[in-house]
Amino acid sequence: MRARPTLEKVAARAGVSRATASRVVNGSTRVAPQIRDAVNRAVEELGYVPNQAARSLVTQRADSIALVFPEPATRVFSDDPTFAGIIRGVSMEIEEADKQLVLMLTGMTGGYQRVERYATNGHVDGVVIASMHGTDPLPGILARRGVPVVCSGRPTVPSSLPYVDMDNAGGAERAVRHLMERGRRRIATIAGPQDMIAGIDRLNGYRAVLRDSDRRSIVAVGDFTRESGTSAMRQLLADDPEIDAVFVANDMMALGAMPALRQAGRRVPDDVAVVGFDDIPAASYTEPPLTTVRQPTVEMGRRLARMVLDLEEKTQVMLPTELVVRESTAF
Amino acid sequence: MRARPTLEKVAARAGVSRATASRVVNGSTRVAPQIRDAVNRAVEELGYVPNQAARSLVTQRADSIALVFPEPATRVFSDDPTFAGIIRGVSMEIEEADKQLVLMLTGMTGGYQRVERYATNGHVDGVVIASMHGTDPLPGILARRGVPVVCSGRPTVPSSLPYVDMDNAGGAERAVRHLMERGRRRIATIAGPQDMIAGIDRLNGYRAVLRDSDRRSIVAVGDFTRESGTSAMRQLLADDPEIDAVFVANDMMALGAMPALRQAGRRVPDDVAVVGFDDIPAASYTEPPLTTVRQPTVEMGRRLARMVLDLEEKTQVMLPTELVVRESTAF
DNA sequence: GGGGAGTGTGAGAGCGCTCTCTGGAAGAAT
DNA sequence: ATTCTTCCAGAGAGCGCTCTCACACTCCCC
């Protein structure tokens, strides 16, 4: 049991040549049925599994793809279920394609070089980058080196790189319109970092709706952390005490904004309505539960994987987002 | 640039044989300094990176280890930052050892066979299993097949399998003692599932402290989900309305227990003190913030990786847990 | 000064597989 | 019956690397 059987052994047992055994194992149709069966039986009996290293060596394929989380993403990894969703989605699709998923969290130092070296030397067939920042140089570098690469999130500058993005702007628009439909008049926003596409698009969506209805925007910028949500909310309240609604660019900041509102004597949703973005699990546990915009993270992972495996005809995909109405925006 | 250089090329450029080039690349000391420098220069100039497949083929090592999340774990993956911590820790250590991390989320069907086939055939040098259930057959199977395997969490039945565990019992004891020190008299518990070591040990810790102080235990059992925390809390209140403290076996259930207390007219911490376990991020956002027991998840990942890489002398490790006191257990 | 020990380098086999190329058998066409 | 085509199986090269073994050389001791 210790020594794993080789193709040679399988061939010998089936009474054929190694070449024929290989053909059967790789599903060639040009093999006589009875021989095919004999080989399959031998494979079964011996518990043969192809040696991936030997196969890769000759095919020059690795049958594995890398999922890279650049450093900034890694830091928030623990807090943000978005990444868990992407991992699950990618994993499902990879598994279906019978390939391996190599996870790379780029460390503090030299992470890029490591990924670059690794990926440009045929160790993987493609790279999925869960990049948060549009300025990330890695996707471009890899693409230029001829490595199939797909990004989660649209690059901030127009580019031909393949990506899968969420409809951030559309989600933001729906959220803000929802606030207007609920009769809110002074709608502020806590925006995300403006070097991330999610931050940019969500702010744009907010602005577009307000502009259409001739209202002025009231904006404070956070960095997607809870603490920044708290201080942005305080600032907003100081700037304009009459605010009766706030669209927060992610749930984490919304979680930070709510205590700030409470401390300022505002009730949610009675005095101020709050909408978040992401639909993290915690959003449904807050008091009151948070209205938010849900993102299809698992689906995103699947599409990323399919795209890098070249199973997808489109190379730039936008996934829909969905408004989830809860008590934080009740009448 | 397209064709990657081979060792042969490096050797030719450095004016040595392939064997010597190989020695230098693999850090053998038995090479003359000037030759070593020449080879290193050639490596640098050519941008040479060893072909892992070729190397694996001859060394019979894969230079990669698998991190397996069995199905039940995968399901809660998104909610539980414990797994994110383990991934990060494993990843750090793997990176340091210059190996690869292959992530396997075992799918709904046939996941075990897939992992088993994959791991028993030399594709990885070892397997880390983030198993939640002590009854999981996978670790035993792999160990019997001669694959180095390490589990997160002690098996429920005594075994010689290597593991890294948290001091769940100790953490629970500290939590319950803390409640007693704060003058609480009737201390109940919401226990976790009794087929998981974390559930078992935390309940045992609770019971041990109560027994020592001659109090009776008041127990409801949940399944680590938020909803189960809510219903367990209701049941506890129905069983004994005089309860003035509850030790909840994980934060998620504690998050569910708090609204149940509020609905029953109990204030936290004034009427009932609450302690959780895990220290998930949400624990510090609750109203009031939750006293809980912190687990060193990243450290756990590191130790798991070190153990499977055989860098650790001990094969059964228990990591300390730490009580984090917040407002939910104030006087 | 010759034999042994020690050290550094090269030659060459071979890891397990895929894939091209060749050969032989069988069927179709002349 | 002969040739041409078609089809399937086998022989063999070679992917890029490591590692054993043999060999050449230097150094030292008797």
Terminal residue distance of chain A: 69 Å
Overall 3D geometry of chain A? elongated
Q: Based on the structure, what is the oligomeric state of the protein chains?
A: homodimer
The strand count of chain A comes to: 12
Low-confidence region ranges of chain A: none
Please state roughly what percent of the residues of chain A sit in beta strands, choosing from under 5%, 5-15%, 15-25%, 25-35%, 35-45% or over 45%.
15-25%
Helix content of chain A: 40-55%
Instruction: Write down the overall mean pLDDT of chain A.
Output: 89
Per DSSP, the total helix count of chain A is 13
Q: Biggest protein-protein interface?
A: A-B, 49 and 50 residues
Main beta sheet of chain A: 6 strands, parallel
The secondary-structure class of chain A comes to alpha/beta
Radius of gyration of chain A: 26 Å
Q: Could you give the order of the helices and strands of chain A?
A: HHHHEHHEHEHEEHEHEHEHEEHEE
Placed side by side, the strands forming the largest sheet of chain A appear as 2-1-3-4-5-11
